[in-house]
Amino acid sequence: MTDTSWGAFSDDGPWNVVVDELEWRPGVPELRAEAERRLPAMINPSRKFPGLRVFTIGWHLGRAIAPWGLTTRRKGGTESRSDLSRRLRRAAEKLGPTYIKLGQIISSGEGIFPAELVAEFAKCRDQVPAERFSTVREVVEADLEAPLESVFQTFSRVPIAAASIAQVHKATLLDGTRVVVKVQRPTVDQLVHQDLRSMAWLAPIFVGRIPIAALANPPALVEVFAHTISEELDFRIEADNMLDVARVFSKLEQDQFVVPRPHPTLVTRRLLVMECLDGFKFDDLDSYQLHGIDTHEIVRASMIGFMEGALIHGIFHGDLHGGNLFARPDGRTALLDFGITGRMSERRRLAFVKLLIGGMTNDPIGQLTAIRDLGALPEDTDIEAVARDLGMFDDVVDPVTMSPEQLVGELQRVVKALLGYGARMPKELMLFVKNMVFLDGAISKLAPDLDLLGEIAHVAGYFATHHGAELAAQVGMDPADYEFDESGVRAAFGVDESTETMTYRQLQERREVIRRRLRTGS
Predict the structure, then answer these.
(1) What are the pLDDT digits (tens) for 74-89?
(2) What CA–CA distances, in Å, run from 347 to 80, 340, 353, 489?
(3) Model pTM score
């Protein structure tokens, strides 16, 4: 049996993945459990001083925040947030891989974190110096317990990508097979764990002192970051993530996606050898046209594919961005870098199902209940009170018609209400929203004239047709009670019943009006 019968792999792979014969895989469940067990000790603030590293962290963060507090903080608005964001980004770069990684995660969180912070930390994506080749050789040979030349016929000295945790090299095996080799930086594991303990100790000190953090208050941000990065430090877990995501796409018959095959034997804690897939940048419109690929279909398949993975199986790629996926000439999309993968418990997966149903049927109470069950609100939260405070029962007010003062006031009111109820951003929700934000940006480039209202109706119909009975049974709902309500979707966009269509281009224009009013007051 070939691996394409159960996994979303390329048709002409260099080897056949037989799951039961993978040398590195048997211990992966225990590796996951161990990573989870170690987290509380690292993220729970301790009265015990975490070590000298905290002085370095405190020094750089203090140098970033203190001048801002004495100068631009009092000005407020965009200028204040931009200045603080710039200072925090510079501090992260000086603090090294852990903080650069945190910055990279923040940079892909448009819509979750303030725009100024996202824009500034985007500079961390390509400013990580590569390790020397001699260091790379040491890691490869130590983990494989063999000379590099005894495994690889060629191995590029210059990496094709260098990130905070690892860097990637092209290579060929002794039989001439082209592969990609991901090599972890030699000291990053120790430094990350040391930094997490220091972060957890420092985070409570900054509560209420960094308004730019909004709902992602420092302790909550440390917790989400720790959960996100802990499994990324062992490439055997990442390789297993690749298999699970490939299996999910295959079960869902989502043949739009391709996952590179991990090598059957050349996977260790710090080394991941995988299939080399070719393609072009995900947003390269000229290449789509050259190969006759319908970009609207790409967008549609991406929206449905990632939602299905989360809703039906509770597993999804958790770090979509331009460097982690590319298009292939056959029209399929290759996914890369599975270090951050969303894995939901059954309770949280069902909460996602309820959130989708609540959104499609315009049920604000159902949506808030689902958000609570996802861990974004405390268990004892009065859901109806939250709905009233957020104005979810009120008539829709188009934000474009609001004055700058009204816009600012409404945003402040909503944020204050959420903070008052103890709102936070759990890992799975942050990863899912972050992915949807990326797809939002992809639509702006690949399909700006796509009718969003019509597309959402199509997605709702797809899930009702393919999974309606199954999902309804899982949440105790009669399928006959499901009725797509477009008014809820329109309300989410801030428009009334008179709006029949809305292209992404029109949505961008509306967003720009709102941003301009918030920024300039006009």
Answers:
(1) 777 778 888 888 999 8
(2) 41, 20, 10, 25
(3) 0.86
